[in-house]
């Protein structure tokens, strides 16, 4: 007697086979697109060079200058394009290097985007107590204590005097 092979095919099994076939085709298409795009990008992309970035820990912007971590610090506001910019930076460097326990100085470039609206050539506001009232000229030194402006100093000679810079 011959054995007969009986196969039971249900409708669920047929649907599963269709689903598996569609899933396999989709996976093959995705892998194919990925491989082709990698080859195209690799052939057409220029050689990339990477540069490591640095974080400036001694610069400030007006909007956050009252929120620095130290309880007492200076903010030296100057226009980096002015002829006096180097002198202001030199005074701050001299103060930092010559004092035994110098107060931290943050540099604020009045020529940068966020700071430009606080930069005036005349008509500054030395009595400003908040950032909203602040108007600074080139060469302004602010002393900040516990998040409040306690000193507002303008001009090269006054800044040199505050930072105890000895002129030769």
Task: Describe the overall structure.
This protein has 168 residues and is an alpha+beta fold. The protein has 2 domains: 11-50; 62-162, Glutaredoxin, CATH 3.40.30.10. The protein has 3 helices and 4 strands. The protein has helices at residues 11-44, 85-98, 156-162; strands at residues 72-78, 105-109, 140-145, 148-154.
Known CATH architecture of the largest domain:
3-Layer(aba) Sandwich
**SSE-based structural type:** alpha+beta
CATH superfamily of the largest domain: Glutaredoxin
Q: Tell me, what is the CATH class of the largest domain? A: Alpha Beta
Mean residue pLDDT: 86
What fraction, in percent, of the residue positions are helical? 25-40%
* Radius of gyration of CA atoms, rounded to a whole number: 34 Å
For the secondary structure, the number of strands is 4
Give the distance, in angstroms, between the N- and C-terminal Cα atoms.
121 Å
Q: What strand line-up does the widest sheet have? A: 2-1-3-4
Q: What percentage of amino acids are in beta strands?
A: 5-15%
- Main sheet, how many strands, which sense, barrel? 4 strands, mixed
Which stretches of 5+ consecutive residues score pLDDT under 50?
none
How would you describe the shape?
Answer: elongated
Strand/helix succession: HEHEEEH
Give the total of domains: 2
Give the number of helices.
Answer: 3
CATH topology group of the largest domain: Glutaredoxin
Provide a concise account of the structure shown.
By secondary structure, the chain is α+β, with helices and mostly antiparallel strands.
């Amino acid at each position: 007697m011959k054995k007969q092979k009986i196969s039971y095919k249900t409708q669920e099994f047929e649907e599963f086979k269709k689903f598996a076939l569609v899933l396999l085709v989709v996976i093959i298409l995705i892998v194919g697109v990925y491989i082709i795009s990698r080859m195209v990008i690799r052939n057409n992309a220029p050689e990339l060079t990477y540069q490591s970035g640095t974080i400036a820990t001694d610069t400030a912007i007006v909007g956050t200058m009252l929120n620095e971590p130290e309880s007492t610090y200076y903010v030296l506001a100057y226009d980096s394009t002015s002829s006096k910019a180097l002198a202001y930076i030199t005074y701050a460097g001299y103060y930092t290097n010559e004092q035994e326990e110098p107060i931290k100085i943050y540099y604020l470039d009045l020529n940068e985007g966020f700071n430009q609206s606080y930069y005036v050539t005349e008509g500054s506001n030395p009595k400003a107590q908040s950032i909203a009232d602040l108007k600074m000229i080139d060469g302004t030194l602010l002393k900040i204590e516990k998040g409040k402006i306690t000193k507002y100093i303008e001009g090269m000679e006054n800044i040199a005097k505050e930072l105890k810079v000895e002129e030769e």
